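Entry:
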Amino acid sequence: MARVFVITGPSGVGKGTLIRGLMERLPDLELSVSATTREPRAGERDGVDYHFLSRDEFDRRVAAGDFVEHADYAGRSYGTLRSELEDRVAAGVPVVLEIEVQGARQVRAAMPEAVQVFIAPPSLPALRTRLVGRGTDDAAEVERRLQVAEQELAAQPEFGHVVVNDRLDDALEQLTTVVSDELD
């Protein structure tokens, strides 16, 4: 069976950047495309960056059991469609899930064999600087994400691996080592 890698951590911690670097280093990995009820950001494409669903469609698919995990985060819903995961795993392709802590817990319950990695910021002030600096959220959204982040940071001990994203190159090296070791 192919490995499933769950990569989680607070919004703005650099999960996406680290995963892009990881996939450049380990090209056999495939990224599961999550579904969300949030609006696309500039440059994001449906089916590539996310499956952008209306609230009604998301709720209908939850009721139908189409998600392996789903969670609400900062006022939006996110989830991993079962089809995104099962098709790749059945084909022997290792899959990376970039999901929130709530969803990571659901995957852990459903797939205890999945490798779980928590990406942590060096500090909350550093995370605030990143969230403000990326310019994708207004001040109220940044504050909401920071409140959620404080709760998520308390969950670090639940995860088999913790990577602190202080220096990008060091964090990427650490993440690559974790994944490579698990694939061997």
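The beta strands are 4-8, 30-31, 35-36, 51-52, 67-73, 76-81, 95-98, 115-120, 161-164.
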